[in-house]
Design a protein that fits this description.
Elements (H helix, E strand, L loop, with lengths): L7 H28 L1 H12 E6 L6 E2 L6 E13 L6 H15 L3 H11 L6 E7 L1 H12 L6 E10 L13 H4 L1 E2 L5 E2 L1 H5 L1 H5 L3 E6 L12 E4 L7 E3 L3 H18 L3 E7 L6 E7 L20 H4 L9 H11 L7 E4 L2 E4 L4 E4 L7 E4 H6 L3 H9 L5 H14 L28 H8 L8 H12 L10 E4 L2 E2 L12 H17 L1 H7 L5 E13 L2 H4 L2 E16 L5 E10 L3 E3 L2 E3 L4 H15 L20
Parallel strand pairs: 2-10
Antiparallel strand pairs: 1-8, 2-3, 3-4, 3-5, 6-7, 8-9, 10-17, 11-12, 11-21, 13-16, 14-15, 17-18, 19-20, 20-21, 22-23
Helix pairs in contact: 3-4, 9-20, 11-14, 11-17, 13-15, 14-15, 17-18
Amino acid sequence: MLGRTDSRFRLLFLLGSFGIGAVLLLTRLGYWQVVERDRLADQARRQTSLTIEVPSRRGDVFDRSGTVMLATSVDRYRIAASPDVIDVPQRVEMVERLAAVLDLDEDERAVLAEKLISDEAYVVIARDVEESTASSIRSSMARGELPSVSLEPEPARVYPQSGGGPDSTLAAHLLGFVNRDGVGQYGVEASYQDVLAGEARTVTASRDANGNPIPDTTRVVDPGVPGRDLRLTIDASLQLVVEQECLAGWVADRAKSVSAVVMDPYTGEIYASATYPSYDGNDYRAVASTPERFMDPVVSSVYEPGSVFKMFTAAAALEEGIVSPKTLVNDSGTLKLDRGETKVRDSDHRAMGWLTFEDVVAYSRNVGAAKVALQLGSTTKQASIALHDTWTAFGFGARTGIDVAGEVAGIVRDPTITSWRQIDLANGSFGQGIAVTSIQLAVAYAAMVNGGSLVKPHVVAEIGDTEVAIAPRADGVVTRLTARQLVRMMRHVVTEVDFYRSRTLVPGYVVGGKTGTAQIWDPKARNGRGDWKDEVYNFSFVGFIGKKKPELIVAVRINEARPRVRGQGDLSLPVMSFELFRRVATDAITLLDKPAPPEDGLAVVDRERDQ
């Protein structure tokens, strides 16, 4: 008889093993259900649902009339995929199909492949896809060739108005553009990014085994906030004409760039702001390799303005009672400074003798301006501080606060920190040794013609249905008496000098202003020691136009132009800065339908002979 094979020990061992196994299983199950519960639940949700942020429709941008659309959004498509549920062999095939449909180069194909080999639940493959390409994607999806790929509508930014020059859209520098991520770059688009973009809408949707959203399962988690529209102060018709004028000046003068800005001196509203060369906001990628093309020179580029700054020397001297417009000043042609170490000359190297101070400004005499600046204080330091204080009172060395991105403050040396020599004071009196922007000049000249108020320039008049209220930055920059004298002096410039009179005055309107020509410093010249550029200059004119009183300020800049005629004291371009001013000013005063200036504006016609 065979012996028994059962054993009490073996039975106990088996029972113990089963018991230990059961405890371990229960422990592991408890770990999953308690410790790992949230992670596993989240993973399950990720496998069965999608969370998507849908950008709100970006607000539109209109001109001052509210009828001309400058920027809007249209529906394009975004291609997305869920690589975590795509088989590896399918990913390789998908790269080939998508690369063919999207016409990708080798580098773009490599980026696509990297996206599809990830384990992400949601990746964006392409954006800004037009309907023709989207149709091809839909056909491939219907044939099952693109599993876990979705085609989602998304807005794209477009600028429907053509600009004043080739390959440009209207007000491109002023508006900026919107990049692929829906973020505004430069100009109004960047400055008002949060207002225009609003807040994205967040939705969830269940997805099938292929990772595609299941219809009727979408749920809004966060409704977001829609973007708001903007109505600008810009007049579209004037903007187009000013851009055309800048283009014409750029071609004629062969300048690096030409800019012009038209502003209301009482409110700070910008009616037009243009620069050529410009760019096409719909195809900003075409010039992305040269990002300086996107910068708006009116607010972002500084330069030494030259003799347009003589008006601020005049403001300082008139305000302190150092001179009056009729005070005689000896234009000796040259002036030795700093104990004979340095010398200031007039551009024609000639002396005009005794001139009234208003003639010193009208004929743009450097020596006369320097002599008056030296009288602003009993010492060079005191005179320097007085002139610097006038500059800062007019806003130089600080941003104007204009509501576009990229504004710079300029460069103004403070004599209380670093003492000026006499030559520094003299150079400053005629606009050398200081760097400013065109918008700063426009605002400062506006303060002269509006009675002494430093306005805040702005380009947005209305956000949604709410008008934008803009308060002046400062009042009493100069007294009304000084302001009146300055207006008369600007008027005197264009009526006294034959050279200006024939090419600046506009029949039927009152015009005044000041021209400026300045050398350009090149810090890279002479192996980094710096030097003046050879026979290349900046040409400026800032002035006003109106019927009986100043109604508009116009500032123009011809940047880095080489004179066609170069004589002693004569640097001539085919289109001079004051001629460009006249063209733009004439366009502006005839095209704009704007309110009349304030009744207390500084009249320059009715009482001209009495002053």
